[in-house]
């Protein structure tokens, strides 16, 4: 089986996003060539900004080393029917690994077929840019150690969806 590659001709267009009751629920349509038949899963991948200074490079290396040992949240089963998808992510799963205070998760849909895996970025390409136009409400929760976290979905400048988890006092 070949590993998944992000493709420019396929993406998952978010049409509805609800952030309430301890869940982040996404619904939308699959864009591109014919939707693939297979098992669909939602993967959350740590999204690290590009380092610009030597200190940022060191910080990125340390973060990658610490997060490599920890399995990220998910994957989550996705319901796909007639080119549309629906999935829910519990906010409790988005706790950043200690000692980090925050984590940004890049959202991707992956179709697992017999021979290959196809990854699709999740975002909002159709219509006007969303990065500053939409602000979603934050959801707060407390982990088992008593630390409080705030999780909020947001769009990047290139209209990709991120889930941002931040520790609060």
| Distance between the amino and carboxyl termini | 45 Å
Q: Which H/E pattern describes the elements?
A: EEEEHEEEEEEEE
Mean pLDDT score, rounded? 80
Question: In percent, how helical is the residue content?
Answer: under 10%
Low-pLDDT stretches are: none
Oligomer: single chain
Shape: globular
Number of strands: 12
**Tally of separate domains:** 1
Give a verbal description of the structure.
9% of the residues lie in helices and 49% in strands. Strands 1, 2, 3, 4, 5, 6, 7, 8, 9, 10, 11 and 12 form a twelve-stranded mixed beta sheet that branches. It starts with a strand and ends with a strand. It has one helix at residues 54-68; strands at 2-6, 11-20, 23-31, 39-46, 76-77, 79-81, 84-90, 102-112, 116-123, 139-142, 148-155, 161-168. The protein has one domain. By secondary structure, the chain is mainly β. The model has no long low-confidence stretch (mean pLDDT 80). The radius of gyration is 16 Å and the shape is globular. A hairpin with a 5-residue loop joins strand 11 and strand 12 (161-168). The protein is built from one helix and twelve strands, in the order E-E-E-E-H-E-E-E-E-E-E-E-E.
């Amino acid at each position: 089986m070949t590993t998944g590659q992000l493709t420019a001709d396929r993406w998952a267009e978010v049409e509805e996003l609800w952030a309430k009751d301890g869940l982040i629920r996404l619904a939308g349509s699959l864009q591109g060539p014919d939707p693939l038949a297979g098992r669909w899963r939602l993967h959350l991948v740590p999204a690290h900004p590009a380092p610009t200074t030597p200190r940022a490079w060191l910080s990125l290396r340390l973060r990658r080393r610490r997060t490599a040992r920890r399995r990220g949240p998910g994957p989550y089963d996705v319901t796909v029917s007639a080119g549309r998808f629906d999935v829910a992510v519990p906010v409790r799963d988005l706790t950043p690994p200690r000692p980090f205070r925050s984590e940004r998760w890049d959202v991707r849909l992956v179709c697992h077929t017999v021979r290959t895996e196809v990854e699709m970025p999740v975002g909002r390409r159709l219509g006007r840019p969303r990065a500053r136009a939409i602000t979603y409400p934050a959801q707060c929760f407390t982990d088992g150690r008593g630390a409080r976290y705030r999780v909020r979905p947001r769009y990047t400048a290139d209209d990709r969806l991120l889930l941002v988890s931040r520790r609060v006092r």
